[in-house]
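U., I forgot to send this yesterday:
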Amino acid sequence: MKNSILKWIICVALAAIVSVTAILLIISVSKNDYPTEGEVFIVVSKQDLKLYVYQRLDGENIRLAEYPVCISQKIGAKQRNGDSKTPETTWKRPIYITEIVDATSWVYDFQDGRGLILAYGDWFLRFSKPYNSVGIHGSTNNEETVPGRYSHGCIRMHDDDLIELTEDYVFEGMKVYIMREDEELCSFDNTIY
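Result:
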């Protein structure tokens, strides 16, 4: 008798654990990560070749700044490292800036005969996984590419704009929304959260 009561208690406890785990999983999967009241966030429009800084105030998205950008050579959402595509997000699933890295001494060889050259500006704003090899950076020695489609997936800005963005707005954990090429900015501006 004691064994069957003990088995019943264990079964009920396991069922409760499984139920609670399932509920928490459903909540985390269905969680929308839209901007919250007062939050400052970035929107990149592939269509406009611009990076916008917004703040959510009184239910509205207030534009604080905008900058021209260079994005990927190839159209479409980044699928893997080396595909020369810029990531895309949804309004429910942004990516985040996980690191603000001093990039003043970073060099790159563009295979254009110039060899290793300074190429990243003052900062590299690293994205969250799975896009942590991609980020926002400057265009040292490549200023003429902004705005445009020349990068290997990163979002490239004029060096002075990157400094202003980083000093005035950016913080670790900041949400970044990257729109598809066929998605107009008004689809964001008119979104009701």
